[in-house]
TrEMBL record:
Keywords: Disulfide bond, Protease inhibitor, Serine protease inhibitor, Signal. One of its GO terms (molecular function) is serine-type endopeptidase inhibitor activity. SUPFAM superfamilies: Kazal-type serine protease inhibitors. SMART domains: KAZAL. It comes from Lottia gigantea (Giant owl limpet). Residues 29-85, 98-153 form the Kazal-like domain. GO terms for cellular component: extracellular region. The keyword Disulfide bond applies. The keyword Transmembrane does not apply. It comes from the Eukaryota. This is Kazal-like domain-containing protein. Residues 1-17 form the signal peptide.
Length: 153
């Protein structure tokens, strides 16, 4: 019996270790859980808000822009409104920032699901998955990942 428990513990650690290497505390993980929501979003239900992307394309909404940013991480915002071909495509707002704004503005639509990917936040609260962590980060921009395991008690 003890052996089985020990084995289960070891394999859990291995699985978590592979999915969430401790050295990587970056946007990759944040982006992944947000992009899972955005990937499923029906952009036609969101308010129009045109933005010009650094790729020279005009996006009709923050939703459309966010979908594109989730596919191409180096896409950023030049300015609000339709792209003006006479204006240089200099990034003014980081793509991640608009994506996070969009996600947080639509929390009531975003369902976190029951994936179990434990995160300990720098608030020392244990979140069951990254999506729940992201929701908490919407009201606390200083919140970051402390470790990808349960917080010390
Ligand atoms: C675009 O408009 C929003 C308000 O709709 C504003 O909060 C934001 O700062 C504007 N962004 C730029 C790059 O002007």
């Amino acid at each position: 019996m003890l052996k089985i428990v020990a084995l289960a513990l070891v394999s859990t650690v291995v699985v978590l270790g592979q999915t969430f290497p401790h050295t990587d505390h970056s946007e990759h993980h944040h982006g992944t859980s947000i992009c899972a929501f955005i990937g499923n979003a029906d952009c036609s239900i969101f308010a129009p808000h045109t933005v010009c992307g650094t790729d020279g394309k005009t996006y009709n909404s923050k939703c459309d822009f966010s979908k594109a940013h989730c596919i191409s991480a180096d896409l950023h915002v030049v300015h609000n409104g339709t792209c003006d071909p006479t204006i240089d495509k200099v990034p003014n707002v980081h793509g991640n920032e608009l994506v996070h704004q969009f996600f947080c503005a639509n929390l009531q639509h975003s369902k976190c699901g029951t994936d179990f990917e434990i995160v300990c936040g720098t608030d020392l609260v244990t979140y069951d998955n990254l999506c729940l962590f992201e929701k908490a980060r919407c009201s606390n921009v200083k919140l970051n990942v402390y470790t990808y395991q349960a917080c010390p008690t």
